[in-house]
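the two lines:
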Amino acid sequence: MAVHTTTAEKQSLFTPFNIIAGIILVAGLIVTVMRFTGGLGAVTNLDQNNPWGIWIGFDLMCGVALAAGGYTTSAACYVFGLKKYHAAVRPAILTAFLGYALVVFALGYDVGRPWRLPYPLFVQQGTTSLLFEVGLCVMLYLTVLFIEFSPAMLEWLGFKKIRKTVVKLTLLLTIFGVVLSTLHQSSLGALFIIAPSKLHPLWYSQYLPVFFFVSSICAGLSMVIFEGTLSHKPMHHLMDEEYLNNHDGLILGFGKAASLVLFGYFSIKVIGLAYDNNWHYLTTGFGAWYLVEMLGFVALPSFLYAIGVRDRNIPVIKWAAGLTVLGIIVNRFNISMVAFNYHLPSAERYFPSWGEITISLFVVTIGVLAFRFISTRMPIFNEHPEYKNEH
Amino acid sequence: MLRRTFLGLLGAAGASVALPMSARAGGKSFGPHPDTLAVLFDATRCIGCRKCEQACNEVNQLPAPDSTFDDLTVLDTKRRTDEKTYTVVNKFQGTSAPVFVKKQCNHCLEPACASACFVKAFKKEPNGAVSYDASVCVGCRYCMIACPFEIPAYEYDEPLTPRVMKCTLCAPRLAEGKLPGCVEQCPKEALTFGPRDEIIKIARARIAAYPDRYVDHIYGEREMGGTSWMYLSGEPFSNIGLREDLGTASAPELTAGALAAVPIVVGMWPVLLGGIYVVSKRKDKIANDERVAAVKDALTRAGEEAEKKLHDALSKAEVANKRRIEVEVKKAVEEALTPKEDAETGEEES
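prediction for all of em together
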């Protein structure tokens, strides 16, 4: 480690990554000032017809879905007893924790009075609202994720007794986490059930909650593979023998699971289409886009995963993971923006502004920097020597 | 069992099945508040003079509009309510003449905005108005997503204290026993105010009296569960900006299923996951036990084989021993005989 540290210190601060991150951070700060001095209208294209935009569609809807790796991985390892995935749990939990924390952070930009975010829980509870349930679950799950993440932090800080206590809670936290994740992943989809006249029939369904939950499993499995792929090169020096030895096995195992879940997801989407008898919409422009989403981002990655697992072709599985992650983003964008307010003339439709895009990039960049900071200091990709085999 | 007893039990069972059925059916439907007030808008009477917009602006102390209220050219473009305007009149081309339609909050019987608000900033009052409480509003704007009539508007340019803005049915004036501002001001009596039941009767009477003048439908009587603001028109409602695909289910009805699933998941998931955990744990234990048993069995078998080998080896050794003894005995006997011959030879020589 000493050698790495010395090497890191000698590196220049002006790497391409740092330059780009710096630019995004500066731009983000500028837009932040504009947002809180000029109101939402100063930096967004939101209007009276389009109250939700990219900050809800991407930062909330996509952020929560892509952070589902936390509950899928911990469930696989601790509930289903698949111990070979143990090395992947900590990176997944860290990603999920940062993901949810950034969701709340981004909501601070989107809601009109962010300091009142605790109001639904502590001042007046609107229990008829699915958004109340989302808020309650996100708060609780963020707490669960923090506790699940804390052993790594406690190991870094050297608090042995507390760490031992927290580790004993792992199974309980995992089950609680899966319950909460099921609820808010599905309730994010249920948010749109209240507006049948605004969401295009191809995307509107009474099954929206189920679709969102099942697709979040696909997102979680794929995101673990995708992020493991992204981390592999820059973080390789931090990965210990257990992580590296199990990496390919993880990709194959999660790839197989993702293939099956995607197939199931595709099936229930077809059932939803048939149940509402919406076949005739497939011949419209929205129908073409629906087919692109379903065939290009659900059926195709399912097939690629199957091929990759059968042939033990790791690169194909990684491409399938990237395609699935992109597909989740397409789906959430479609539901919250593209297919929402489909009845309005195009002049009244929403398109994100540069301010909104800047803040979204700002949020993601903060997440990447935080992940890098934490995983270089705490035992995320490796086991702390003092606590090896203590689980 | 006695026949009479059996038949009695059968009858009791039938009766007990029937009773909850009617109770359950009764619980499914909601009516309006008994004192709900309503407004009837008659599109055949409206001349688009915008006096109602002006009255609304004045009684609610809203900011002054860009152009005066007697400027009728604004009717040439479609408008909607916004953060400075609680009601607007739009012009639509009818079959023979322009049709003017007033748009404002319809004060639904089961408002989607109230159902969607996660902090209960919206509330359906007993008098039918849907009120808004800015003191708890977070500004999530989910009410704007939920409203099927696209009425709530937001103060996007307010940085620190933005609010949702919409018609309040002039609740302060109702409290004083006055009419809503727009109703009071309408010169053509296109707006009729009163108890909802009475308003529906009036609307039906008009349709019955002039069937050729009106479409036979009271828009808002049942749309999205019913509204307090209802419409009569001589043109199809979809031609005058009123969507006819809203259905009759109220917002709470739409989301009841998803909300009902929450306690089911909370109750069943821990049992399901706990069960999976126990099964996988037990599977591991069985696998471990089998491994231990296999090792033990292997050791036992190895022990037995070793013992057998030892036994065989001992047997062979015993046989070998016997033969060696015989050989030694024979040798000894032969040796014993040889010295005698030597002794005899000595005697003969002496």
